[in-house]
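Morning. Coffee machine broken again, so started the prediction first thing and wrote up yesterday's gels while waiting. Chain of 241 residues, entered below exactly as on the submission form.
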Amino acid sequence: MHTARLRLAAAVLPALLLVAACSSGGGSPEPDSGTPNVLSGKAPLTTEQLSKALVTDTDVPGWTVQPSQTADTSDTSTLTADKPACQPLADMTSSNPRIHRMAFVGAAFAKTTATAGATPDVINQMLVASHAPGDAKKVIASVKSAVAGCTAFTATDSTGTKTPFSVAKGPAVPVGDDAVSWVMTDTADKKTGAALLTVVQTGDTVTAYVSVKSAGGAGPLPVEVARKQNDKLKAALAARK
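Came back before lunch.
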């Protein structure tokens, strides 16, 4: 599958979820790191360090990964929930979340198709962000709380457009120091307007995934890629001076 085709196929993702600060969350995670003190509390990873830690095609054979052209600007791609309890979910797809991202990089990825140029069945977007010491834990805690207590909300974007969403818990995420996933559905487009969102905390970083089927609907959890991304971030965090 050509990377150009992956970029085109990524356009099937809801525009809301293609904000430079694209997102995610979901489920009951199973921590895989017993030494968060080694990975937390130092200077946040820079954009350059995050870029070097981003998964590549070589890291995950059978997948095609295309880095996104993301730049943390002062644009107004914000999302506001009408219910305060649901705001952490809106923040995951906002360029101006309440808990600031120090730096971030993104990518689109999908299973490599057998036929060159074919559209993959599932398209994924990911955003890897670094945070000030302690903030990554705050992000994951706020999202888990929101997933547990928020079943529906209406989001207003920076243009004033309102979109009604329903929220349902997603599958358990056996990756990272902590993690959560949920399915968010545009209730005005229940047939195709759903996505699986997954958030993984690794030390002082948060990786957010959005997974959708090309034909519409929420995609499966990209566990293989998430595991490798978690491993690379652990190595980058441990290597900090």
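The radius of gyration is 16 Å. Going to sketch it on the whiteboard this afternoon.
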